[in-house]
Amino acid sequence: MAETHFAPFQPPSRILLGPGPSGVSARVLSALAAPTIGHLDPQFLKLMDETQQMLRAVFRTGNRLTLAVSGTGSAGMEACVVNLIEPGDRMLVCVNGVFGGRMADVAARAGAVVRKLERPFGEVFSAAEIEAAIAEFKPKVTGIVHAETSTGALQPVPEISRVVHAGGSMLLLDCVTSLAGLPVEIDEWEVDAAYSGTQKCLSCPPGLSPVTFSDRAVAAMDARKTKVASWYLDMSMVRNYWSQQSRAYHHTAPINMNYGLHAALCEVLEEVLPKRFARHLRNHLALRAGVEALGLEYAVAEACRLPVLNAVKIPAGVNDQAVRAQLLGEYGIEIGAGLGPMAGKTWRVGLMGVSSSPTNVLVFLAALESCLNAQGGECRAGAGVAAANASYVASAKS
Questions:
Q1: Which residue spans adopt a coiled-coil conformation according to this UniProt entry (predicted)?
Q2: Dihedral angle computed from the Cα positions of residues 272, 80, 124 and 208, in that order, rounded to the nearest 10 degrees
């Protein structure tokens, strides 16, 4: 067999404005490149403790069982489901996008009796319809997506939490796209379990999934009659590794990924959460002004529109793939395609974490104008950028 030589991989520089991953700061990249130490090294255990404290601050919770699961956001989803569900348990899953559907699939694989409460992609649920479904089905767990990445829809939570608990169910919340980009109030909303991912508004590369469990959820786990379906994600063992009292070895943690998450959380808390949320909203409003000035529309009603993930309708006659390919090839800008019934009908433009900046908004709008005109559009020169700049000026005065 002939000898093959490979050159070191050199990734291209991109402006990441898709549904994830988002851009990563030099500080986080530097942390990832720090020397690897052992997963039971006293200094690494100190980092774990600090990471837990910062995760509680970002989740806005005092939950003792708060940690970073080794794996992406989907691993966090699976960890929450398999630890709360035993074979035969009932789980109500609210499905209005791809990731609600994935939660239902995970629950079925864990042996749950699953009922899906469904809404069209891009819409959200009312507390009344969830209350009615819980009264009829009586689920142990009710799962819902806070920020549906596939559609750009933001689900209101507080009133839904009230009806979930009044119906005797526990609330499981997907915060993959919302955590650190818009308010997530785990304790105030009485969320029993929640999971997120590092690659969205936390602006850390994918590889870890922050999770948090209420005391009520922990009690339910402790009362299980069967073993958790996943050894790797079994919180009864994983939590002992994260506990200051036991530090029982479970698996070798991704050391350097935890360095990166620690650095990213430091950046989040140094910015201060309210200011971070305001930054994301300000850039979303500027993008919206620019997009509309180019003659485009949003796919989600304003009342339930995500500020960190913008689902924009593709105009009639415009080739979805050609525009995305031109953005990437000529301008180095990545945006996302639509999923499910929105495929070919929407672009998903992420403004998350480090990627949420005026520079990125203005560069994207200028590039998009060029791409639309290349498809035969008649965008007025500079209209999108001018509208975005006007939005920034207005926000500075308010």
A1: none
A2: 50
What confidence tens digit (pLDDT) does each residue in 137-178 have? Answer: 999 999 999 999 999 999 999 999 999 999 999 999 999 999
Quote the pLDDT of residue 377. 84
Phi and psi at residue 188, to the nearest 5°: -60, -40
Q: Are strands 153-154 and 147-148 parallel, antiparallel or unpaired?
A: antiparallel
Distance CA 358, CA 159 (A): 34
Known binding residues: 348
Any bridge partners for residue 65, and if so which? Answer: 213
The whole model's pTM is what?
A: 0.96
State whether the Cα torsion 162-164-166-168 is positive or negative. Answer: negative
| Contact predicate 327/370, CB 8 Å | no
Residues that constitute the known binding site for substrate: 348
Q: Which of 289, 263, 312 is nearest to 358 (CA)?
A: 289
